[in-house]
Amino acid sequence: MNRLDAERFVKDTLREIEFARGGDAIEQTYRIADQHVVIGFRSPKLFELLSPSIAHLRSDPSPRPDLRLTVADPAYVHATIPALPWAPDRYRACGEVGGYVEGQHYSHLNLPMSALSVFDETEGRAGYWCRKPEDLPSYELSAPFRALFTRFFTRSRMMPILHAACVARGDKAVLIIGGKGAGKSTTTLSCLSVGMGFLGDDKIVVDPTNLRAHSLYCPAKFFLADSEKLGLGNIDGFLRLPRTADDRKALLYVDRFSPGQMVAQARIVAILECNLVPGEQSTVIKSGPGSALQLLASDNVGMFPSSAAATLANVAQLCRRVPCYRLNAGHDRKEVARTVARFVENC
Amino acid sequence: MASYRMNSPKVVAETIDNESVVINLDKGTYYSIRGTGSELWDALRAGVPTGVLLTQVAAHAGDQTASDTATKFIEKLIEEELIVPDHSTEGSTANFAVPYSPPDVVKYSDMEALLLLDPIHDVDEVGWPVPA
């Protein structure tokens, strides 16, 4: 195998994804965290699968986009992607490739999805090549292009994408953090049911300098068995059901279900560490920044090691500047939502 | 007297309010260090020589055995590859502001699965891994 260096591999791959023979691109502009991102979907299939999750951020075309991303698959674009130049022992489970992520030319291969992402940071151009769109799992449909967006926002714009939910009242937003099963998604959906604004239930772009939270993806995830308990009424027309046996959650496209509740950005007034407790009552109590830092660090920093230092520094800055609390969420979901709503109003 | 530095870039760390979070990206492990341990960590990162540190921590604790505890703490940091010897920078003294507590490192391995992958043995003709 001809081993290309990181720069040449990214440039050669990008050229193929962008210019190889094939279908015309469906080009859309999105305004994400005040950045203009142009995405050219050269695959109607990938457009159908991936674009709904960011549709709420569509904007007018920009003459000077901050990032230009081209998306393609072999069914529509006859690209000759260079042979992967790295040795098999370079893979990390998170998809980054040792030796191909350290400089300005970034490569990421998601093995389960057969999806290759490349990013030329010097030119603000990126490519996403998916060999089998039909196999994309729900987590990619709900949060597409995560590796590229993480690299772009965290390293180039110093705005990490955090594993957190975010709800708002007016311009005041709270980040809801917690590990798997901590109740973030359930709490967020419950907050929808009492009329709060929604920025996201799993991934939020955070600007620690200006203390702003920015929406990135509009779907909310939930277990189908819980749909009755959510108290959201008829949501059938706004769902995407799990696609594979491994997928356990359905997606609710909040931008279509309740467009008025989608919030593009808001001021972060607090961090709430979500914690499920027995009983009906829910409470919010003050906690320290150290606990939030530890949780956010363990939950976010390892996902994309090449952005780890920037992510950790930004998370620490956020925790230093924003008051941190613990949300003890009881069984009564409406009460959880009312507790959060009251808390935000009083911040 | 030995001096150390944080083992960057494979180790990243931040400290808030005497709580340090230290992450070893190669191993997928992270560590929580609090109180006096956090102050020791910050001093080690700043290049304060261990001899100075051990004297200072014993004085701060009002107990000579505190230097033995601190020595074990430093050995643990070395064993976990969080710090490495370095003589290029040298801080002068540590700043102990919080009441003494025996320094300790709490290790977590939650992130290992994100970083450590089963070895890939088979790739196809263009280098894409073949599913097992």
Concise description?
By secondary structure, chain A is α+β, with helices and mostly antiparallel strands. Chain A has helices at residues 6-19, 44-50, 138-142, 146-156, 184-193, 254-257, 289-300, 308-321, 333-346; strands at residues 26-32, 35-41, 67-72, 105-110, 115-120, 125-130, 161-163, 165-169, 172-177, 197-200, 203-207, 212-215, 219-223, 239-240, 249-253, 265-276, 283-286, 324-329.
Characterise the protein shown here.
The complex is a heterodimer of chains A (347) and B (132). Chain A is an alpha+beta fold. Chain A has two domains: 6-156, no CATH class; 161-346, Rossmann fold, CATH 3.40.50. Helices cover 26% and strands 29% of the residues of chain A. Chain A contains nine helices and 18 strands. Chain A has helices at residues 6-19, 44-50, 138-142, 146-156, 184-193, 254-257, 289-300, 308-321, 333-346, and strands spanning 26-32, 35-41, 67-72, 105-110, 115-120, 125-130, 161-163, 165-169, 172-177, 197-200, 203-207, 212-215, 219-223, 239-240, 249-253, 265-276, 283-286, 324-329. In chain A, strands 7, 8, 9, 10, 11, 12, 16, 17 and 18 form a nine-stranded mixed sheet that branches. In chain A, strands 1-2-3-6-5-4 form a six-stranded mixed sheet, sandwiched between helices. In chain A, strand 14 and strand 15 form a beta hairpin. In chain A, helix 7 packs antiparallel against helix 8. Chain A is globular. The N and C termini of chain A lie far apart (59 Å). The model of chain A has no long low-confidence stretch (mean pLDDT 91). Chain B has 132 residues and is α+β, with helices and mostly antiparallel strands. Chain B has one domain. Chain B is built from four helices and six strands, in the order ββββαααββα. In chain B, the strands form two sheets. Chain B has a four-stranded antiparallel sheet with strand order 2-3-4-6, with helices on one face. Chain B has a two-stranded antiparallel ribbon with strand order 1-5. In chain B, a hairpin with a 2-residue loop joins strand 2 (11-16) and strand 3 (19-24). The model of chain B has no long low-confidence stretch (mean pLDDT 88). Chains A and B meet through helix 7 and helix 8 of A and strand 2, strand 3, strand 4 and helix 4 of B.
